[in-house]
Every structure is written in structure tokens, then in C-alpha cells.
Amino acid sequence: MNPVKFYLVTDTHYFEPSLGASGKAFEDYMKKEQFFMLESSDIVKATFEKIAADDTVDLVLIPGDLSKNGEYESHKSFVKELNRLKEAGKKVFVLTAGHDYGEKSRAFVNDERIEVDGTPFKELREIYADFGYSQALAVDEATLSYISEIAPGVRLLAVNCDSEGNPKGKVDERLEGWIKIQLDEAKKDGCSVVAMCHYPMIPSVPVFDLVGDAKLKDWRRTASFLADNGVELILTGHMHIQSINEYVSENNNKIFDICTACLVGSPAKYRKIIIDGDALNVESINVPDFGVDTKGLTLQEHFDNQFAYSIRNRILDALNGGKGAAKALKGFGKKVLSDITLGGLGRILWIRVDDSIKKTKFIDFAGNLGVAIFKGDMPYSTDTPEGKAIAKVLKRFRFIIKKVEPKLSKNGVKVDLADMLLNTIYNNKGFSDNNAKLKLK
Questions:
Q1: What's the pLDDT tens digit per position in 264-278?
Q2: Whole-angstrom distance between the N-terminal and C-terminal Cα of the chain?
Q3: 270 and 304 co-located in one domain
Q4: Candidate from 221-225, 318-322, 356-360 with smallest mean pLDDT
């Protein structure tokens, strides 16, 4: 079998700029937004132009959150960009997700947030007919999941876990039954199967196992089901993070989950993937220049600054509101949190902080830590000043952590919270989240 090559692009969140993205309400919104809304169309166009120019790859896969928030005009404009890829000789297969349908679409005009036409779920199949559905061997009408041949002897199983026809973020028994039929049929026909799903199947970082919307519900069961039925690779998005993870079922069958970042915000990457026999090669590529004024920063710094800015604002915003004494106390806490350094926090907790990070403001560190985690290949081992400080904090609060862990442990899975957090800030998997050479069966 010839090598299978494809580009993986996730969470394009395309917004049609003519709908409106300016004014005070928009500026306030962007204070807590990870990705660039107004510039999303330019980012998509620049990326697709670069993909179109690569005549060595003719496949493009996009697993969901195609539009900003289901705006009908955004879908129309995004389809035009997909058609340009098609005209360049690319075969494009998409999957829709929660941000692609609904009646609560918004834009920003004259300092206000306004309603614009949304997109009913039932219309998505027709809108994206040329990008997966018309080529499908079978379609699950309830969820718009489908299976299609993307190369000789290779089929793409597009599992829609974020639709009106299925519990959000879950592969239920009915959908699992439909999938089993498709996998059995592929096996009978001698075809291998690559899956794609909007939600990460495996938590992208360990602590995300505690976050309900960060991965598929009952993910171990679904991972085992797919792996035991011959699926070795699933391509995901949703969490806007760069991660590669593996899971081995009780029957000793392995599956890799390649989760890819939001295209239009930090980390702002897409991937080029090659399957050649048992070799799986994953390359991450930065979003190309799209004509934005970065004010002297590199393009990556421009993306990262927005993400760190949004994290800081979300933390501080949690200390807004309340009445009377509660409001005053929150206001005091917000000021302290805005100004305190890691050295000052260390003194409060009786923890020694390395001189190299003592003067770093906690709020800035929190923003940069968030950006680093989402970029993948988390750098903060316990040999680094940052990792040492976090390990000391966890040790200081060990008595509280031990009381919390039993409440977090569910379905027979015991939680070691300190270990989970330390392995979230440091990649100890043995392979990169960004560029990896992996081995299939």
C-alpha cells in the first residue's frame, strides 16, 4: 500500500468579518478569548493557500468547530475556502461540532453584541455535502457521523459526538452499534480505518481527566472499543491543544489520539501526517503570515500574547462581583493577585523560590504556564525552577490533596492528584506532542 499523506486542521472557528467585529463590546469579549475572531478568515485563507501549494499531499481532514459559533454566513464563506482547496486538487473531509449549529450566533456592531442568523443542525449535511457526505459509504443520519474511503484500502471513520442526535461528548450505545457495523464491514473488505472525532478521546494532559468537557465521556471504554476493533489512530480537536497520547486496552491493543490546536489562536498550528506501513510520522506546522501587524513581535509571540492575556483576565475576572464586604474582599484579593510575585507567594507559603523567577508576577506566570501547556511538550520538569516551585506547593498542601483525592476517584480509577498535576506541566511520555515518529502494528 502506498503511503497515506494528509493535512490535519482543527477548530478553524471561521467568522465572516462582514457580520461585524468591532466596538467596545467586541473589545471586552476579546479580553477573555484565546483565538483571533476578526482575523480568523485571513488565517484560514493563508493556511489553505499554503496547503493548496503542496502538490505532494491531496487529503485534508478537519474534525469540527468549523465556524465561530454557527453563523450561517460564516459557513457560506468557509465553504468557499474549502472549494478553493478542492479546485487545487485536494480531497477534503470535514466533521461538524457544537460551534457549527444553533440559533445563538452573535456578532459585534456599534459597541453592542447583536444576533445574526444561525444554522440548524439538520442543514449541515447539505452545506458540507461535497466534503465527506456525498462520498460516504454510510452516514448515521442522527449524528451526521460517516465513513468514507480516503485512499485505496483506507477508510475514514468520522464520529460526531457533538450533535443533536447523541449525548454531548459521548459515544452512546446506539452510535457505537453503528460504528461496529462499519468497522466489521471494513475488516471484511480488507481495509484499515483511521478515525476522527471532535472531542479528544484520551485526555490531552492528565489533569483534563477531571474536566468533564475536556474529553469523551467514559473515554476508556470507547478507546478500548475502537482499539479492539482495529482502529489504531484517532484525530481530534476541541481543546485547542497540541497533544499526542496512547492508550492500551485490556486486550493489549493500542490506539493513538492526535489532538491538534485551534488554527486561529495560540498555539496556532496544523499538522502534516504520513502513514507508511507501520510508521506514523507527525509534523506540526506554524500558521503562516496572514498580513497582521504584530507590532514588532514574531507571529507566534503575537498569538501567545493574546492567549496569556485572556488567561490573566479570566483569573482576575473570577474576583469580580459580590456585594458589601464580599465585594471589598474580592477587590482586595484581585489587587493582591495582580501584584504578588512568585517570591512573595513563596514567603507566604514558607517555600523557597529560585532567584531566577522570584520577581515574576504570579498572574504573568499563570498566563505563560497555560500557554506552555497548550503548546504541548510541557517544559516544567521538577529540575526546572518553575517545576520545583510547583512541586513544593503541592507538598505544602499534601494534607488537603489527600482529602480531595477520594472524592475525585471514580469508576475504579484512583486519582493521584499531585502526580497528575506534575505530569500535566511536564511531558514524560517519551515522544513529542508536536513532531513524532510512532509505530503502528
A1: 999 999 999 999 999
A2: 14
A3: no
A4: 318-322
Which of 290, 325, 351 corresponds to the end of one domain?
Answer: 290
Q: Which domain holds residue 384?
A: 299-430
Same domain, yes or no, for 229 and 313? no
pLDDT tens across 302-343, in order? 999 999 999 999 998 888 877 776 677 777 778 888 999 999
Q: What is the CATH number of the domain that holds 223?
A: 3.60.21.10
pTM for this predicted structure: 0.96
pLDDT of residue 1: 66
pLDDT band, very low/low/confident/very high, at 220 (cuts 50, 70, 90): very high
Instruction: Tell me, yes or no, whether 227 and 317 share the same domain.
Output: no
269 and 345 fall within a common domain: no
What is the count of structural domains for the chain? 2
| Judgement on whether residues 251 and 343 belong to the same structural domain of the protein | no
